């Protein structure tokens, strides 16, 4: 990487912190919301826990669509902010919101007609399919709002405003948590609706978030305003950037099914331990690596929009070093505290032992995680979502599944082979996006997208 002047590095670090801490807070609240939903559901019955767990495998579909369209929104929004073309930026944001709302409508129909059957396809018993279907119907009914809220937040972040999305998401998430407790358990005079109440809370929270995001755009209190798009160029570019990210996200979700089956070969305790360790890993690190990814997209996109590819490359380097240091430190703590953290979730000795090993596996992966997310964010800021897509597919299917099965089952290394597969999956992702960052294709892609929009404005 290019050697950077210390003053420039400090400037990028300051901007990374200023933009990143609201994203980290926002992600912490989102993780807390999911944890509360699981805790509340645990008061009902094992059937309810199984039902919401299976339904959430499907409910991540609108999330992945929102994340993918959000990548397109943040790329175009940050580039046009850097270029100083507010009109094109606003048209791109409006186009992304419209596409997001339209993408959610088929999910509403699927939820109304097929929710129970979808849960049954996973092998659920009749009562689990019934409860999971009721929950999924409600959650899918809010799919357009969930996607719009996510896309709007990413568009705002692209302008450099990460605090407004934090406040909007924080308010909606807080409402979601309160409603989950009240409607789920029947507190504060509310009816006790069980898993249906948790679903209603999610739908209301996501609807409020979408309304607030659109309301902020209409109010004139942010840099972005809604402007009716013209032509098809912006829609085409948004889909060009978004579709690989959507497909990549969904493929990663699909890979979780056979990987869980692989871990189950070593017993229920091993599978439970993996989920415990994964929850610990997400809780402690997701707010940070997602913040670094978002900030890299914003700052790199703005530099490219301003016609400064060399500075964009330097910015990506500085943020990756910041991320590596932060997540590396968390990895050391996770490795040292692996067993005490596991005991917070279970008292079963075998599960604690397995969870400790999984915790240390994630800790050893932290250096690769610290590089992968800011590098992938930088590429997405340029509009390159194909390279992160390839990295995700190779990491998930060649290494997480392929290497794990080869080492654990074929060669007989047991869970040690699974641990190696996890580390290799993150290492492969980091190498693939890192090699791309060293080249010039991603900056050339950004220049091409910007040139097309400039030509359309003439």
Describe the structure.
- With 458 residues, the chain is an all-alpha fold.
- The chain has 15 helices and no strands.
- The longest helix has 38 residues, at 46-83.
- The mean pLDDT is 89.
Distance between the termini: 37 Å
- Fraction of residues in helix: over 70%
Number-wise, the strands total 0
The main pleated sheet reads as: none
Query: What is the CA-based Rg, rounded?
Result: 22 Å
Secondary-structure element order, as H and E?
A: HHHHHHHHHHHHHHH
Binned strand content: under 5%
The number of helices is 15
Shape by Cα distribution: globular
Roughly what is the average pLDDT, rounded to an integer?
Answer: 89
- Structural class determined from secondary elements: mainly alpha
Which blocks of ≥5 consecutive residues have pLDDT under 50? none
Helix and strand topology:
Layout (H helix, E strand, L loop, with lengths): L5 H37 L3 H38 L2 H36 L4 H16 L1 H16 L4 H23 L9 H25 L13 H32 L3 H38 L3 H28 L1 H6 L5 H34 L3 H25 L4 H24 L2 H17 L1
Helix pairs in contact: 1-6, 1-9, 1-10, 2-3, 2-4, 2-5, 2-8, 2-9, 3-4, 3-5, 4-7, 5-6, 5-7, 6-7, 8-13, 9-10, 9-12, 10-12, 12-14, 13-14
Please sum up the structure shown:
The protein is mostly helical.
Feature tags:
mainly alpha; 0% strand; 15 helices; 458 residues
């Amino acid at each position: 990487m290019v050697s950077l002047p210390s003053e420039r590095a400090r400037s990028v670090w300051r901007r990374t912190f200023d933009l990143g801490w609201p994203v980290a807070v926002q992600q912490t609240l989102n993780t807390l919301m999911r944890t509360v939903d699981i805790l509340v559901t645990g008061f009902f019955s094992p059937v309810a826990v199984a039902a919401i767990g299976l339904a959430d495998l499907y409910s991540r579909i609108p999330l992945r669509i929102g994340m993918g369209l959000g990548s397109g929104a943040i790329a175009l929004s940050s580039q046009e902010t850097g270029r100083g073309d507010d009109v094109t930026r606003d048209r791109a944001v409006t186009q992304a919101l419209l596409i997001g709302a339209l993408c959610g409508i088929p999910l509403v129909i699927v939820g109304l007609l097929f929710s129970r059957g979808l849960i049954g396809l996973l092998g659920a018993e009749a009562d689990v399919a019934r409860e999971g279907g009721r929950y999924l119907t409600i959650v899918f009914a809010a799919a357009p709002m969930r996607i719009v809220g996510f896309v709007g937040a990413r568009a705002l972040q692209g302008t450099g405003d990460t605090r407004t999305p934090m406040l909007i998401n924080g308010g909606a998430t807080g409402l979601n948590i309160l409603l989950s407790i009240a409607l789920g358990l029947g507190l504060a005079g509310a009816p006790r609706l069980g898993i249906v109440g948790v679903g209603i809370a999610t739908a209301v929270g996501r609807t409020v978030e979408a309304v607030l995001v659109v309301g902020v755009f209409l109010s004139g209190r942010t840099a972005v305003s809604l402007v009716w798009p013209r032509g098809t160029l912006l829609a085409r570019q948004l889909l060009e950037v978004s579709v690989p990210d959507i497909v990549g996200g969904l493929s990663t979700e699909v890979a979780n099914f056979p990987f869980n089956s692989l871990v189950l070969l070593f017993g229920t305790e091993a599978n439970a331990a993996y989920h415990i360790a994964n929850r610990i890993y997400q809780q402690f690190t997701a707010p940070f690596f997602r913040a670094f990814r978002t900030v890299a997209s914003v700052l790199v996109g703005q530099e490219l929009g301003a016609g400064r590819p060399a500075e964009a490359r330097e910015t990506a380097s500085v943020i990756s070093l910041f991320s590596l240091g932060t997540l590396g430190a968390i990895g050391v703590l996770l490795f040292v505290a692996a067993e005490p953290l596991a005991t917070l979730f279970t008292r079963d000795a075998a599960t604690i032992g397995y969870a400790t090993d999984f915790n240390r596996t994630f800790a050893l992966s932290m250096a690769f995680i610290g590089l992968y997310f800011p590098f992938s964010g930088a590429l997405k800021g340029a509009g390159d979502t194909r390279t992160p897509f390839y990295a995700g597919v190779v990491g998930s299917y060649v290494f997480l599944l392929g290497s794990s099965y080869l080492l654990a089952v074929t060669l007989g290394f047991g869970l040690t082979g699974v641990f190696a597969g996890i580390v290799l999956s993150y290492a492969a992702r980091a190498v693939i996006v890192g090699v791309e960052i060293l080249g010039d294709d991603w900056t050339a892609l950004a220049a091409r997208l910007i040139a097309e929009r400039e030509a359309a404005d003439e």
